[in-house]
Amino acid sequence: MSILFYSLGAAEEVTGSKHVLEIDGKSFLVDCGAFQGSRMEADRKNRDFGVAPDRIEAVVLTHGHLDHCGLLPLLAKKGYRGNIYATPATRDIASLIMMDSANIQAHDAVFLRKQAHKKGEKFDWQPIFDERDAIQATSQIMGVSYNRPLNISAGVQLELFDAGHILGSAMVMLTARQNGKAVKILCSGDLGRPGKPIIRDPETAIPAPDYIVLESTYGNRLHDATDDAMQKLAEVCKRTVKNKGCVLIPSFAIERTQELVYYFHMLVDEGIIPEIPTFVDSPMATNATTIFQVHPECYDETIREAFIKHHKNPFGFNALHFTTSVDESKALNNHPGPLIIISADGMCEAGRIQHHLINRIGSQDTTILTVGYMAENTLGRRIRNREKEVKIHGQWFARRAEVEEINAFSAHADYEEALRWLKTFDTSRLKKIFLVHGEPKPQAAFKRILADNGFPQTEIVKYGRTYDMSEGGDAGECTCGGSL
What we know:
Helix 4 packs antiparallel against helix 8. With about 475 residues, the protein is an alpha/beta fold. The protein folds into 2 domains: about 5-220 and about 410-480, Metallo-beta-lactamase, Chain A (4-Layer Sandwich); about 225-405, Rossmann fold. Strands 6-5-4-3-2-1-22-23 form an 8-stranded mixed β-sheet. The protein has a 7-stranded mixed β-sheet with strand order 7-8-9-10-11-20-21, covered by helices on one side. It has helices at about 40-45, 65-70, 70-75, 90-120, 130-140, 225-245, 255-270, 285-295, 300-305, 325-330, 350-360, 380-385, 415-420, 440-450, and strands at about 5, 20-25, 25-30, 55-60, 85, 140-145, 150-155, 155-160, 170-180, 180-185, 210-215, 245-250, 280, 320, 340-345, 365-370, 390, 395-400, 400-405, 430-435, 460, 465-470, 475-480. The two termini are about 20 Å apart. Helix 14 (about 440-450) links the parallel strand 20 (about 430-435) and strand 21 (about 460).
């Protein structure tokens, strides 16, 4: 039995997850994500991502974030018509994300064409895919519940386990069988954290794997405690009320926004903060919140006890407003403080958050609160690094706004949480861990930590290099081509 593994994204970086398992010549793609970063680099990588559709037997999607599902429409556009397996909640979220990406690209094309025309420059950029491609990709997604083994090809079985990252997120177990022998490969996707609100903890009742493809985003960092984060969130809000200013929160529309709404709801209910006009200014976040409401099968017991049993909406309170139209969004530019604006994109690379930054980044009464990971070379990372001047839509803006950071809201396990998770299930068969979805320094640190804690066989995956997972193999590099 021949099993080869290689990565065409999220190898020594944290975006564009695309991992390939080639089992006896059949290729199985785990995630097909968009690369996020500087506009030119992202456009180049996303247009040429190295997957030939006619070589793919099946696709498995771990969750609905753009950097994991964002190029499925391009895969469909290039002719892939096979199955895409995901949980029902992930199917709904991915559909929303893909359509939003298509719309953003269409709007960007119009805006950039106008800008080029004003400057007398040539403009020939076209969106990578459109709404029709997103609809086609969605039509190919088959819902698979957690803990329901499914044969997806001759000799290959799929089983999904709750990853505890966002609503519907899954770890992927692929089991390859031949002549009475079996090799189990566990792909963590984005591994969540224990104790997060709304969703369940990462699952630990997992069959013993032979190989693990493990994310390493926070391989050298620990998160703040949730209680500390709640206190800091309350302090920022109280200061905003005192200064009659604005708290501007770049937030991913999926999971992070709903989590923030949940926390604001709790702070108001407990009388820790007053009711502050709070606006979720993201059509996608508004739609995503509706998806959260229709998938209670993913909730943990805490939210059931606090809200569902009492027929209360965990994602709504009196001071909360969901904007929908562009006019409503623009009206926030002149809204008096104090107020809170939660807007996408979480890394500030697209969406309405950029317009709010243009309007408010120069004001000392604004606090920009970062609550999640900011990849290298993104606008969000530059703001989090407190650069004095940043470029938005081709123009430079002086930053006079305060910048605060809360790490506890991350949906990714830190290195201690990932290590504890590894130690909760049977690793007696484990031959090797392959690290993906992390930048070089965190990955190097995580590899040392794993070695010090009983996992010495750990490999940092290089882009395009092929690794042997064959039964009886040594899981080392081989000279096979790392491209489909």
